Amino acid sequence: MMQITNAPIDAAALQATLANPSAGGYCAFEGWVRNENEGHEVERLEYEAYEPLCISEGERVIAEARAKYPFLEARCVHRVGILELGECAVWIGVAAKHRDEAFRACRYIIDEVKVRLPIWKKEHYVNGDSGWVNCERCASHGIDRGIEK
Amino acid sequence: MKTITVRYFAVFREHAGVSEETLNLDADTAADVFEQTRDRHGSAEPNGHCKVAVNDRLADWDMPVDDGDTVLLFPPVAGG
Questions:
Q1: ipTM over the 0.90 cut-off
Q2: Cα–Cα distance between A142 and A148 in angstroms, integer?
Q3: pLDDT per position as a tens digit, B44-70
Q4: How far is B27 from chain A (nearest CA, A)?
Q5: Which domains does chain B have, with CATH numbers?
Q6: What is the residue-averaged pLDDT of chain A?
Q7: Cβ pairs A/B, distance under 8 A
């Protein structure tokens, strides 16, 4: 199940939703807001997503993971909005009969989510600047258009 | 000419100053829409680094566009 939320991610509550008596292994990945990126001191992050396609593409990724590494339950939640340092931006949990499927499916899901889902991340730096991640070559990156600063 | 609704996201929206607009374009494919709105979204990226959706479905850049379609232009993604 793929979900986009603007509310804080409650990892313990999400883990509980994967409970399955046949599961012998559980693996989770959490992506957290870090205080530095490529030499810039980061103060907070802002995530934007196009939810309809995040859901459809996220469900496709989870189905692919299930086909490759058969698991019992899996779930992915991505935050949007303003996130402070240390907050959880993305949570993935997989419950499987054995650990190997849980580890591999979890890894597959996060790797694909990062490159396929329409989600964008704007870094707000300690020095007051801001910038969209991976958009260094987009024309307006780093240019003060009266919006970014 | 075709009437195409173009939606901009993230850095593209900031550059265009609007999240969506309806334009008359001489476009056959999604790539044509990207090229013809370059001044709006401001991207110097080759469109291969960006993504596109037509009528809410992720598409290839050579996807044909028709009169009345909505084309969503996505800058390089950065989830996680």
A1: yes
A2: 8
A3: 777 778 999 999 999 999 999 999 999
A4: 22
A5: 2-74 (3.10.20.30)
A6: 92
A7: 90
Of A113, A139, A145, the CB nearest to B79: A113
Question: Does any domain span residue A103?
Answer: yes
Per the structure, the count of domains in chain A is: 1
DSSP string for A88-120: EEEEEEEEESSHHHHHHHHHHHHHHHHHHS-EE
What pTM does this model have?
Answer: 0.92
Could you give the 3-state DSSP secondary structure of residue A63? Answer: helix
d(CA B19, CA B31): 19
Asked if the structure places residue A43 within a domain, the reply is yes
Domain presence at residue A141: no
DSSP class of B6? E
**B10-49 pLDDT per residue, tens:** 999 999 999 999 999 999 999 999 999 999 999 977 777 8
Q: Which two tokens stand for residue A126?
A: 């300690």
Q: Is residue A56, in this structure, part of any structural domain at all?
A: yes
Domain that holds residue A47: 2-132
Query: What CATH number has the domain bearing residue A96?
Result: 3.90.1170.40
Chain B residues with CB under 8 Å of A134 CB are 75-78
**Using CB atoms and an 8 Å cut-off, which of residues 1-30 of chain A contact chain B?**
none
Instruction: Spell out which residues of chain A touch residue B74, defining contact as CB-CB under 8 Å.
Output: 50, 118
- The label of the residue with tokens 């992720």 reads B58
